[in-house]
Fold this protein.
Amino acid sequence: MRSAKKEAKCFLYFSTMLKADLHIHAKGDPIDIIRYTPKKLIDRAASLNFDVISITNHKKVTYNRELSEYAKKKGILLIPGAEAMIKHRHVLVYNITNKDLSTIKTINDLKMFRKDNYLIIAPHPFFIKKYCLSNLLTENIELFDAIEFSSNYTNHININKKAVMVSRKYNIPMVGTSDAHSFKEFGTDYTLIDAEKNIQSVFKAIRSNKVKVVTKPKTLRKLTMDLSKTIILSTIKKTYRKILK
């Protein structure tokens, strides 16, 4: 058992780390129906004492100076980001613009963003095959800075096992995220980052594995409900777009 002194030292260390969630969706996502606006998300993050967040809508960078300043006033560093889609497979890319995002069409296009001022994370890489990198991750492992530890798992069904194995094999850090599509999914899964509150320091700390994943398994009922809701709302939005065409 840890001594009280060691426990206090451990608590002090973790309390000085940045609480971050780098995979969250908000209203304006081209694919999913999200009820809360980016500002409401920032308000929620502030109420949960987050230091760093990134709104990673599908195929869209939801970021501007007004949002950045709004987050800053709430004590939050808002990092530009998006969940890019390469032949339907998802990749998280950070500190990019919508113009940058439009250039990402193949896995090789990620090479343009293998620089210190960008960050590339493999989200839920071994989940639903159609939308996940799967073997593309291991075949192009040199393109990624980190691997996501997905919040969508239970004590008995854990899609993260293979991701953890890949992380250990290739010595690539893991980050915890919520991949939230609703406020009920936000706040229990995140990453503590040993960094200063600026983009470059956060990126450097992640690459250096100065992170701690904080996560909590879902009940099977909650996992089923969360995934079902996301799939249903996404299907509704796709159908609506087809009708408009």
Notes: Confidence is low (pLDDT under 50) at residues 1-9. The CA atoms of residues 39 and 70 lie 8 Å apart.
